[in-house]
# Entry
Amino acid sequence: MNLPSIWRRLRIRTKIILPFVLLFSVIIFGMLALTIFLFDRKYDQQFSAETQQWLETIQHTQYIEEPEKVKQAYHCEVIVFGGDDTLNGSTLVDLPDPEWSALGKYFALSQVRTKLSQQNTPVIGNVRLAGRPYKVVYAKQSLNRIYCLMRPMGRVAQAKRQTLQITAVIAFIGLLLVVLISTLIGRNLTRPIDQLVQFTHRVASGDLEHQCDLIGIDEVGQLTAAFNQMTQDLRRSRKERLQVERLTTAGQLSAAFAHEIRNPLSSIKMLTQMMVGKMAESTAKQSLTRVLDEIERIEVIVSGLMNFARPTELNRINANLNAIAESVLKLMEVNLKHHQISIVTHFDASLAHIQVDTDKMKQILMNLILNAIQSMPEGGELTITTQGFSDQIRLQVEDTGIGIPVETIDRIFDPFFTTKPTGTGLGLPTSRRLVEQHQGLIVVDSVEGQGTTVIVELPRHSNNNSG
# Structure
């Protein structure tokens, strides 16, 4: 498995944390190596300079001829090599035999002699004897002898080790802090993403009733808001699709039912009318008259079913919504007074004309007013309001009736659903279909025991070919 494929499999949090850790690891350990290098170089330069100054002082004070006094005064070792690289003198006493015989090799005398012959200043080098490091300053003497002043570097090595340990501890603590901070940052950045991923799984499983919590207003927050909007649109689309399927099924059933019942009902009505016409006033005639009334009520229901099932085409004309509302109220004035319902109108006098089917708009308004009358059995107040906006015109019908229960308000547009004993459950579904044919929107808001408000919104400019 190559590196790109491994990287693609990593979680986003790991992809955030890993670069932080790698970057700061390189920085921290790079600084550690640089610090040790600079420390070693600076300390070595200072140590070499001090050792060379000691040699100059020893030469000036003539201690160079007395190695033991130099050792006591400076805590240094002295070795003197003759012109043939043989040992002429030494303050070392505990050097092993193998190293005694190979001193020339340890001190690289041939190279030292070459350097001394090329420069007039002492030569500085490093030597390790018996496992102990020394800083050595080579000086040329008479008879081609080489004087070696050896300064122990044990304390320097110990200081280097301590510096390395302290720096390593600091680097380790820094790395832990980097891991901790990057983990917190990664968790903070990926928490909304993880939450959004979990929410997408819920949506994928069919749960469209919830919203993902919005955390922040950054790009992830904007993505969450967009996904919430998409979920709302999907939920609305699903409801609309189910509504269309219900309406289609209901329309087919209504058409079949109305077609099958209309002809025999007409025959029954005609025969009953003939019998009533031939009978004298009697109890039987009164009963048959009641039968005719019920037949006519059934015809009204059948007509409603036929209108609901029959596809309609809009006959749009340039009309004023105020005039349509006034004509409907005038037509239903007697019925409203009979039910002791007062009328309040708030018509927008500056309302512009729009292209609508006036008959269909009257049918919509009559359905809404009839529903309002049925919801106010003991009378009340009916308020009709029109308002004009830049992009739409609004018609509002508000009553003070019994309202709609919360548990049933989501079903009021379902065909054949009604809470009234004499209703068919087709008024609101038919009204909604006609409003949507006008490319409008119908919304119902109700508080049980206080009343219901129905709002119809129609666009100012619509596609005249819709219908």
Observations:
- The chain is about 55% helix and 15% strand.
- The mean pLDDT is 80.
